[in-house]
Amino acid sequence: MARLSLTLLAVSLLILSTAMDSDGQGGAVQAQIVPAVVSFGDSTIDVGNNNYLPGAVFKADYVPYGVNFGKHHKPTGRFSDGKIVTDITAETLGFESYAPPYLSPEATGENLLIGANFASAASSYYDDTAAMYDAITLTQQLKYYKEYQSKLAALVGRKNASAILSDALYIISTGTGDFLQNYYHNASLSRRYDVDSYCNLLVGIFSGFANVSTYATIPSTKIDICSATPALYRLGARRIGVTSMPPLGCLPASIRLYGKGHNGCVARLNGDAETFNKKLNVTVEALAKKHSDLKIAIFDIYTPLRDLSESPASGGFTEARKTCCKTGTRKTRVYLCNPAMAGLCRNASEFVYFDGVHPSEAANLVIAESTLSAGISLVT
Ligand SMILES: *[C@@H]1O[C@H](CO)[C@@H](O)[C@H](O)[C@H]1NC(C)=O
Ligand SMILES: *[C@@H]1O[C@H](CO)[C@@H](O)[C@H](O)[C@H]1NC(C)=O
Ligand SMILES: *[C@@H]1O[C@H](CO)[C@@H](O)[C@H](O)[C@H]1NC(C)=O
Ligand SMILES: *[C@@H]1O[C@H](CO)[C@@H](O)[C@H](O)[C@H]1NC(C)=O
Ligand SMILES: *[C@@H]1O[C@H](CO)[C@@H](O)[C@H](O)[C@H]1NC(C)=O
């Protein structure tokens, strides 16, 4: 069902893009509906940057990650057995290959024409969270993006580059780590901010990242450097999609750590995600109002993932509590697959979660389908 309608949409988008090509521009027929996809964020969207960071705590460069990925069934750095949501989105938009992780040797020459991926597992809105795990901070991701702009200009000229960059789809997917890897076990942070003001802080960072820098208003000494960072809109982005906070309380790792022995989703944590999501909604609406030439939308991953977690059978899954791989390493605890422990589940498509925090490819397909209409609003 999910697969079928995604295919139908891909076909109709392709027809649309072919029609657009033939009325005017001429030249080579471009199969994609947007020229490029540019991604920022955390492990939900990292396609391998952390492989190139010697100190990074969170990596997915080992089996069983990638066991169902592409033709080669090899780990790439994606945190799933197969495709992540943005892979599916890119395919739906007509791309035949994926934008490379910016730190990889493939991020060069013509490969950069279809975009770049700057995401880094364990990164988050709050730069402090990323720094604790030696991940690439959001501030640094934006600096890499500026560097990418220059590389693109060197490749195809300034004018062509800016056409690509303003038509490109920008996806931001991050924030989980600010709670799971920081706030929930950081007494100094939770003393300083209640959940509501912590969410204000995070959404403020998003707003500054997408709009113009409002970082200076954030009460943290470390964040001041960000006020010098020109933000996405000012850098030319005109189609921005941001994911909502996932159902934090339904992630298997959260249930293990905060479920007090119960097996249901942790209501308090889902409430925190909802608090964040409401504020994100207000901010995105404000940004859309402020900039008439900006298309901006929220990819709501909260609702489909909560629904699958609460009633897996509704999406054709059998398991939403156990993880497909065995978790529990010393450094990444219940979050990631343990490479030393054999016993991968027989069929990852029956599991909503591949590891303690990341959905399986099959669940990613359901999520991608559910975020399609938001995606369409950005590319049409
Ligand atoms: C608590 O959070 C602050 C701010 O994010 C960070 O600088 C500090 O390292 C964290 N402490 C611990 C113990 O995680
Ligand atoms: C810019 O794009 C046009 C049209 O596709 C192309 O003819 C031209 O060679 C490009 N410029 C550079 C510097 O690549
Ligand atoms: C975007 O930036 C402008 C300043 O240029 C500011 O007035 C506005 O409040 C910001 N919008 C949001 C939603 O942060
Ligand atoms: C914000 O929430 C309202 C009410 O649920 C919804 O109609 C609207 O589409 C949301 N806005 C965005 C940008 O997602
Ligand atoms: C794996 O599970 C999915 C979903 O239940 C099912 O459609 C598929 O046939 C299964 N594959 C195998 C090899 O059992």
UniProtKB/TrEMBL annotation:
Question: From which organism does this entry originate?
Answer: Leersia perrieri
**Gene Ontology MF terms:** hydrolase activity, acting on ester bonds
**Coiled-coil intervals, chain numbering:** none
Q: Family, per the entry?
A: Belongs to the 'GDSL' lipolytic enzyme family.
Q: What is this protein called?
A: GDSL esterase/lipase APG
Residues making up the signal peptide according to the UniProt record: 1-24
| Gene3D superfamilies membership | SGNH hydrolase (3.40.50.1110)
Instruction: Name the source's superkingdom.
Output: Eukaryota
GO terms under cellular component: apoplast
Q: A Pfam family for this UniProt protein?
A: Lipase_GDSL
Recite the UniProt keywords alphabetically. Signal
| PANTHER family listed in its UniProt record | GDSL ESTERASE/LIPASE EXL3, GDSL ESTERASE_LIPASE APG
